[in-house]
Design goal:
With about 400 residues, this protein is an alpha/beta fold. It folds into two domains: about 170 residues, Rossmann fold (3-Layer(aba) Sandwich), CATH 3.40.50; about 180 residues, Up-down Bundle (Dehydroquinate synthase-like, alpha domain), CATH 1.20.1090.10. It is built from 17 helices and eleven strands. The strands form three sheets. Strands 1, 2, 3, 4, 5, 6 and 9 form a seven-stranded parallel beta sheet that branches. Strands 7-8 form a two-stranded antiparallel ribbon. The chain has a two-stranded antiparallel sheet with strand order 10-11. Helix 9 packs across helix 12, helix 9 runs parallel beside helix 14 and helix 13 packs across helix 16. It is globular, with a radius of gyration of 23 Å. The relative contact order is 0.09.
């Protein structure tokens, strides 16, 4: 019967006979808590979180700790072990906390990833056990990838320890490590079991790290919430001196806005081309690599925000003068919004920073989609950027820095 039809009709007929659609949806949910003293004997939040699904069970867990935390908090490992011992009827921490490198070191290829995965194997961590990560965003990224790929998914609890990880990366669904010279080249979208934000971790950070995390708050305020931007502007002095109440509100509101985008933005696993929360990030990611990660992520984002804000003015989207207002806020918070690598040239004489646009396009699947500003609190997606205007924006930032 099919052989009697024209070729195109045959193909359509075969498709209709052999085509079966599989459809299902999975609901994801996880709590994000704001607390203090998470390992104090008087704070039940961690064990209550672990017992959420099976209250009567004694829960096994393996804990990884960012080595950068042990300088300001040298007793942290003992605090964790003491907490487990105090709650031994509910918790079974199967080994002493394992210290891992903080920062981009842990994300450099698969060396540390494989070591952590081996630890899960040796301690028989299964899909009903927990992997707990205590640390900054890079540690959460790497440990999250270990948890997501071991046994196709082990319960993962994040305890973010920096402003940046508490208000942005730690409350999201991304995990990954760097490879082949590309940031987060290997990774997954896998929601954590829970996130516990402890303000006491933030309070012991070095000044530079406290400041760096505020960039994401400025970013999300610029593209989503004018009232929040105005609040940051009005409380800039308190934030610059790291007032606890001000910093706590900044972290919580920034986290809420990121969570709202993930839940209601229509693309939580970024299967499309848009990256609506990555304002300022195309240049930031390139700058991090160009500086061999000497620039913190938040510091690079602040520069990227300043660059894209000036570009928004030059392209006629944003009112003239708003770029200066935004740059002044970043500077008052403590950011430098210029770096010499913005003007770095390749062997062929091209600006290397422009490769960031090509990298961004490739990461998004071939179509460039960049968020710019139409007004404070309102972002807009564009699908091309004029390199000449980017270079003009860079020159503007350089002149501003020189003056």
């Amino acid at each position: 019967m099919l052989m009697e039809l024209p070729k195109r009709r045959q193909e359509e007929a075969w498709a209709s006979v052999n085509e079966h659609w599989q459809r299902f949806s999975v609901a994801f949910e996880y709590p994000v808590y704001f607390t203090e003293g998470v390992f104090r004997s008087s704070n039940p939040l961690l064990w209550q979180t672990m017992c959420r699904l099976e209250p009567a069970k004694r829960h096994r867990a393996l804990v990884f700790v960012d080595d950068g935390l042990l300088v300001p908090r040298p007793d942290l490992l003992d605090e964790i072990s003491a907490y487990a011992a105090l709650n031994r009827t509910r918790l079974d921490f199967v080994a002493d906390p394992i210290v891992v490198p903080g920062g981009e070191r842990i994300k450099d290829g698969f060396h540390y990833f494989e070591g952590m995965q081996r630890s899960l194997l040796e301690h028989h961590i299964d899909r009903h056990s927990y992997v707990i990560a205590v640390g900054g965003g890079a540690v959460l990224d790497a440990v999250g990838l270990v948890a997501a790929t071991t046994h196709r998914g082990v319960r993962h609890i994040r305890l973010p320890s920096t402003v940046l990880s508490q208000d942005d990366s730690g409350i999201g669904v991304k995990n990954g490590v760097n490879n082949h010279g590309q940031k987060n080249f290997v990774g997954t979208f896998a929601p954590p079991f829970a996130v516990l934000n402890d303000i006491e971790f933030v309070e012991v950070l070095e000044r530079r790290d406290k400041i760096a995390g505020m960039a994401e708050a400025v970013k999300v305020a610029l593209i989503r919430d004018r009232a929040f931007f105005n609040w940051i502007e009005g409380n800039v002095e308190a934030l610059a001196r790291f007032d606890r109440a001000a910093l706590s509100y900044l972290i919580r509101r920034c986290a809420e806005l990121h969570m709202h985008q993930i839940a209601h933005g229509g693309d939580p696993f970024e299967s499309g081309s848009a990256r609506p929360l990555d304002y300022g990030h195309w240049a930031a990611h390139k700058l991090e690599g160009l500086t061999n990660y000497d620039l913190r992520h938040g510091e690079a984002v602040a520069i990227g925000i300043a660059l894209d804000t000036r570009y928004s003015v030059l392209s006629g989207l944003l009112a003239d003068g708003e770029d200066g207002r935004i740059c002044r806020l970043l500077e008052r918070l403590g950011f430098a919004i210029w770096h010499e690598q913005l003007e770095a040239l390749s062997g062929g004489g091209d600006h290397v920073i422009l490769e960031g646009l090509r990298d961004f396009r490739e990461h998004l699947g071939g179509e460039l989609s960049v968020t710019l500003l139409r007004e404070i609190g309102v972002g807009i997606e564009v699908h091309e950027m004029q390199e000449s205007l980017v270079l003009q924006a860079i020159s503007w930032l350089h002149r501003r820095q020189a003056s």
